[in-house]
C-alpha cells in the first residue's frame, strides 16, 4: 500500500488569512484623545509593603513613573490594660480600700471626701455621691415603694398605683423629672370609671387606692427632718353654690406609721393621718388645690366632701389635696410637697399615699381626671451639685514600641447616673493640667461609657 504525503499549504494559508482579516477590516485614524499615535508603556511594578513604620525603600536602578498608595492596618489586639475597681488589690487584698487615698498610695484623690461613699467598713464599694437620708428619682427603680391598695377597696380595673413612664400625649405630659414616676393607673385620664358595677348601663362605685413608701429612718444627724416629693394631681371637682366656688368630691392625703425598730407588718395597720407643711411646699393654694375636709350640704363650698373619711382625725377634719394642681401660677401642675418629720426623730417610718374616690353624683367641671402622681422623693439633704474624683498613674501600653501609635487606647467606664445628672472625664497631665490632643482638641468634658484616648501624644 502506497503512502502519500498531502501538501500543508492550504491550512497555513487559511491560518494567515484568519490572522490578517481583522487588520484588513479595521480603519483606525485617531485615538480617544484625538491623537493619531500613542505610546504604550508596559509596567512590571512590584507591590511594596511595610507593616512596621510605613517607610518604602526603592531598589537601585528603578524609576518611578507613577504610584498609588493604600494605607491600612491589621486588627489591633490590645494585650495590656489597667483596671481599677472593687476587685483591685492595692496591697491589702482584692477590694480592700482601693478607693481610699490613705491606703492606695495616693492612687485616688477627691475634691471633698465627705461628699463620697466608697467604703463599707474596710471593704471597697462602688463610688457614689453621699446623700444623707433617703433619695430617689424612681428612674429604673421602684425604690422600695409599693402599691398597698387593700383588696376590698381596689377598683374593678384591678389597678391601683403603678410605677412607669409617661408620654408627651399623657396628662400629665411626663414625670416631674426623667422618664419614670409613680401614679394612680398610669396614663388613665379618667379614674372615675375604673370601678364599674358590671351592669349595662354601668354605674361607678367608690374606691380607695394607696401606695406605701420604703422604710425610712429619721436620723438625728440629718440636717433637715423634712421629707419632700414632687406631686401632680387632678381630682373630681364640681361647681359650688356661690359664684366661682368649688366643691371637692375626691381627695388625696398622707398617712404615717412609726416604730423604734426596723421592720413593719405587710398590711396597712398602724397608719394615721400625716399633715402637709403647706408653708414649706410650693404650688399648693388653700381652697384651690389644697382644702379642708368635712364639706357637706350648704357647708361644702371650698371644702373636700365628708365622704373622704380619711381626713377625719378623731373629731377634727384635716386638710388634703383637692381639685387640680395645675394653675396659672403652676402651668405644669407639678408641685413640691413638704412633710415635717421632726416628731419621728430616731424612729423608722413608712408614709402612705392615699387617693379616695367618693363617687358622688355631682358633675365634674374638668374633662380630665387623671388622679395623683408622685416623683423625686427625698428625706434629708440633696446630693452635692458638683464633686470630682481623680485616678492617678494611668500609663500607655508599650507593646506597640516607642511612641505607641494608639496613645492611651480607650477608657471604659462602668457608671450609672440619673437622667438629670452628668458624668464627665477630664484627662490631666502629671501637673494636673488639662491635656490637649494631637489635633489640638481639648481632652476635657468627655462623656460616655467608652471614651477614646487615641489622640494623646504619649511622648509628652
SSE blueprint and pairings:
Layout: H1 9-25, E1 108-110, E2 116-120, E3 123-129, E4 133-136, E5 146-147, E6 161-165, E7 180-184, E8 207-212, E9 216-217, E10 226-234, E11 237-239, E12 246-248, E13 251-259, E14 272-274, E15 290-295, E16 303-305, E17 312-313, E18 316-317, E19 319-321, E20 335-340, E21 348-357, E22 371-380, E23 389-391, E24 410-412, E25 450-452
Parallel strand pairs: 15-16
Antiparallel strand pairs: 1-23, 2-3, 4-22, 5-8, 6-7, 7-22, 8-21, 9-21, 10-20, 10-22, 11-12, 13-14, 13-21, 15-19, 17-18, 24-25
How would you describe what is shown here?
The chain is mainly β. The chain has a domain at 133-380: Jelly Rolls, CATH 2.60.120.200. 4% of the residues lie in helices and 25% in strands. The strands form 8 sheets. Strands 4, 6, 7, 10, 20 and 22 form a 6-stranded antiparallel β-sheet that branches. It is elongated and about 115 Å long. The model is unreliable at 1-26 (pLDDT under 50).
What's this model, at a glance?
It is built from one helix and 25 strands. The chain has 460 residues and is mainly beta. The chain has a domain of 248 residues: Sandwich (Jelly Rolls).
Q: Characteristics of this structure?
A:
Jelly Rolls, 460 residues, 6-stranded antiparallel sheet, mainly beta, disordered N terminus
Between the first and last Cα atoms, what is the distance in angstroms? 100 Å
Question: What kind of sheet is the major sheet?
Answer: 6 strands, antiparallel
Share of helix among residues?
under 10%
The CATH top-level class label of the domain at 133-380: Mainly Beta
DSSP summary: helix tally: 1
Element order: H for helix, E for strand: HEEEEEEEEEEEEEEEEEEEEEEEEE
Strand content: 25-35%
Give the integer mean of the pLDDT values. Answer: 85
Query: Unreliable stretches, pLDDT < 50, 5 or more residues?
Result: 1-26
How does CATH name the architecture of the domain at 133-380?
Sandwich
Radius of gyration: 39 Å
Shape: elongated
Question: How many strands in all?
Answer: 25
Structural class: mainly beta
The CATH topology of the domain at 133-380 corresponds to Jelly Rolls
Amino acid at each position: 500500500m502506497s503512502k502519500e504525503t498531502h501538501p500543508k499549504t492550504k491550512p497555513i494559508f487559511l491560518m494567515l488569512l484568519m490572522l490578517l482579516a481583522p487588520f484588513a477590516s479595521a480603519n483606525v485614524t485617531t485615538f480617544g484623545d484625538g491623537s493619531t499615535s500613542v505610546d504604550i508603556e508596559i509596567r512590571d511594578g512590584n507591590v511594596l509593603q511595610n507593616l512596621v513604620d510605613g517607610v518604602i525603600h526603592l531598589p537601585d536602578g528603578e524609576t518611578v513613573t507613577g504610584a498609588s498608595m493604600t494605607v491600612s492596618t491589621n486588627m489591633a489586639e490590645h494585650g495590656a490594660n489597667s483596671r481599677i475597681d472593687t476587685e483591685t488589690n492595692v496591697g491589702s487584698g482584692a477590694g480592700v480600700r482601693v478607693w481610699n487615698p490613705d491606703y492606695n498610695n495616693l492612687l485616688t484623690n477627691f475634691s471633698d471626701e465627705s461628699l463620697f461613699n466608697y467604703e463599707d467598713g474596710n471593704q471597697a464599694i462602688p463610688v457614689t455621691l453621699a446623700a444623707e437620708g433617703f433619695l430617689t428619682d424612681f428612674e429604673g427603680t421602684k425604690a422600695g415603694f409599693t402599691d398597698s391598695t387593700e383588696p376590698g377597696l381596689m377598683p374593678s380595673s384591678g389597678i391601683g398605683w403603678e410605677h412607669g413612664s409617661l408620654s408627651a400625649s399623657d396628662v400629665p405630659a411626663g414625670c416631674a423629672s426623667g422618664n419614670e414616676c409613680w401614679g394612680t393607673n398610669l396614663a388613665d385620664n379618667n379614674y372615675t370609671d375604673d370601678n364599674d358595677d358590671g351592669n349595662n348601663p354601668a354605674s361607678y362605685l367608690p374606691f380607695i387606692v394607696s401606695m406605701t413608701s420604703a422604710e425610712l429612718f429619721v436620723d438625728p444627724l440629718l440636717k433637715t427632718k423634712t421629707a419632700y416629693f414632687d406631686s401632680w394631681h387632678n381630682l373630681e371637682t364640681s361647681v359650688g353654690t356661690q359664684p366661682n366656688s368649688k366643691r371637692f368630691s375626691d381627695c388625696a392625703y398622707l398617712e404615717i406609721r412609726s416604730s423604734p425598730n426596723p421592720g413593719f407588718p405587710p398590711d396597712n395597720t398602724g397608719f394615721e393621718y400625716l399633715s402637709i407643711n403647706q408653708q414649706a411646699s410650693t404650688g399648693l393654694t388653700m381652697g384651690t388645690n389644697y382644702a379642708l375636709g368635712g364639706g357637706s350640704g350648704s357647708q361644702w363650698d371650698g371644702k373636700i366632701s365628708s365622704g373622704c373619711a380619711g381626713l377625719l382625725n378623731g373629731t377634727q377634719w384635716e386638710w388634703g389635696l383637692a381639685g387640680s394642681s395645675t394653675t396659672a401660677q403652676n402651668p405644669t401642675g407639678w408641685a413640691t410637697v413638704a412633710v415635717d418629720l421632726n416628731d419621728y426623730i430616731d424612729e423608722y417610718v413608712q408614709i402612705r399615699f392615699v387617693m379616695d374616690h367618693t363617687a358622688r353624683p355631682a358633675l365634674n367641671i374638668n374633662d380630665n381626671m387623671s388622679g395623683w402622681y408622685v416623683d423625686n422623693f427625698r428625706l434629708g439633704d440633696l446630693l452635692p451639685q458638683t464633686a470630682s474624683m481623680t485616678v492617678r498613674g494611668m500609663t500607655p501600653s508599650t507593646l506597640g514600641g516607642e511612641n505607641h501609635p494608639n496613645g492611651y487606647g480607650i477608657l471604659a467606664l462602668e457608671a450609672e447616673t440619673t437622667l438629670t445628672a452628668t458624668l464627665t472625664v477630664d484627662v490631666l497631665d502629671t501637673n494636673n493640667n488639662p491635656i490637649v490632643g494631637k489635633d489640638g482638641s481639648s481632652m476635657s468634658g468627655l462623656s460616655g461609657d467608652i471614651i477614646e484616648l487615641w489622640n494623646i501624644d504619649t511622648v509628652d
